[in-house]
């Protein structure tokens, strides 16, 4: 296998978009500065410089390139997408009382909850300034809607937490809000700024939506079968936090009375004892919940690839298709 084919799809995409991504990173550093509150760049830099994949801004740049865009506003949109993402991470870590993000201590742990929330607010404000600078009301509409949808998804997750009646449909609705909304906004905004056709806009929205759902399902599955060093958090964190992710929802649906009592105690009531995670893993295996979840992720990745068929046959399209494949291949 040669070096090019051995690279991960996101690395090949990053290499193709390197010049644009450098411009995005420069803009991010400029706009996260604050003359009056030095804590803002401190907190933001901790997360922004933490070695994240920058996947969402890359999707905006890739979509714009795929649709033949020649201007520079896609750089502002990509930075906007990253700021929205970073703001939601800062807020999420406070809500989830997380201690680790991308293998490093979270901002709320290193500073405090107040700093994380307020700096997140600052980044949201910065993102809207950047959107306005593009002069596109359509783009503003797409990204403003996505920001509202993300918040809705998080609140829905909060209200569904520890509720054993949560269905797979509600789970997908949560995922579509908290994760897929920004993926689809990132790709759709790239198409809009490039003045793409309605068909291409719809195709890139559908790609981002399906990719985001596949990505989150895979992430939730890795929480039960990944390795801490690989997933950047502790295995079983979702279980300990009482999150009803797809593997658990599937296991609960197949549970007998004794198993349901276990899930009610550990997830519903949040009363966990030593050995409960191992018991949970055993139940997930017994009912084939992990494999069924993996199959669902594969289906969504397939939908993402299919959506790309309406777009020009260019190398960047192949990379986006490979990215959808990789999202689920990492589960093998």
Automatic annotation (TrEMBL):
UniProt-listed Pfam families: polyprenyl_synt
CDD domains (alphabetical):
Trans_IPPS_HT (cd00685)
List its EC numbers.
2.5.1.90
User: So which cofactors does this thing need?
Assistant: Mg(2+)
InterPro entries recorded: Isoprenoid_synthase_dom_sf, Polyprenyl_synt, Polyprenyl_synt_CS
Residue runs in coiled coils: none
> What Gene3D superfamilies is this protein classified in?
Farnesyl Diphosphate Synthase (1.10.600.10)
Q: What class of enzyme is it?
A: transferase
- One BP term from GO: isoprenoid biosynthetic process
Q: Which domain of life is it from?
A: Bacteria
What the record says about family reads: Belongs to the FPP/GGPP synthase family.
Its name, as the record gives it, is Octaprenyl diphosphate synthase
């Amino acid at each position: 296998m040669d070096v090019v084919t051995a690279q991960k799809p996101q690395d090949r995409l990053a290499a193709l978009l390197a010049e644009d991504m450098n411009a995005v990173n420069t803009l991010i550093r400029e706009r996260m500065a604050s003359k009056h509150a030095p804590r803002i760049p401190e907190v933001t830099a901790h997360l922004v410089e933490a070695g994240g994949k920058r996947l969402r801004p890359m999707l905006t740049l890739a979509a714009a390139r795929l649709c033949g865009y020649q201007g520079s506003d896609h750089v502002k949109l990509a930075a906007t997408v990253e700021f929205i993402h970073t703001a939601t991470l800062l807020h999420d870590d406070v809500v989830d009382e997380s201690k680790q993000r991308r293998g490093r201590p979270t901002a709320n742990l290193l500073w405090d909850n107040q700093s994380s929330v307020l700096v997140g607010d600052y980044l949201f404000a910065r993102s809207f300034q950047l959107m306005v600078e593009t002069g596109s009301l359509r783009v503003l509409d797409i990204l403003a809607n996505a920001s509202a949808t993300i918040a809705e998804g998080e609140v829905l997750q909060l209200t569904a937490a520890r509720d054993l009646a949560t269905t797979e449909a509600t789970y997908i609705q949560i995922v579509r809000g908290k994760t897929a909304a920004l993926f689809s906004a990132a790709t759709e905004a790239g198409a809009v700024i490039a003045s793409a056709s309605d068909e291409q806009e719809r195709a890139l929205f559908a790609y981002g939506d399906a990719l985001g759902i596949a990505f989150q399902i895979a992430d939730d599955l890795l929480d039960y079968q990944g390795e801490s060093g690989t997933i950047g958090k502790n295995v079983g964190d979702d279980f300990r936090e009482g999150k009803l992710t797809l593997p658990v929802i599937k296991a609960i649906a197949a549970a007998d009375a004794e198993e349901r009592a276990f899930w009610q105690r550990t997830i519903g009531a949040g009363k966990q004892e030593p050995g409960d995670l191992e018991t949970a893993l055993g139940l997930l295996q017994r009912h084939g919940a992990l494999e069924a979840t993996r199959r669902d992720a594969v289906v969504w990745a397939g939908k993402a690839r299919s959506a790309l068929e309406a777009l020009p046959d260019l190398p960047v399209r192949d990379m986006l298709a490979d990215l959808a494949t990789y999202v689920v291949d990492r589960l093998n």
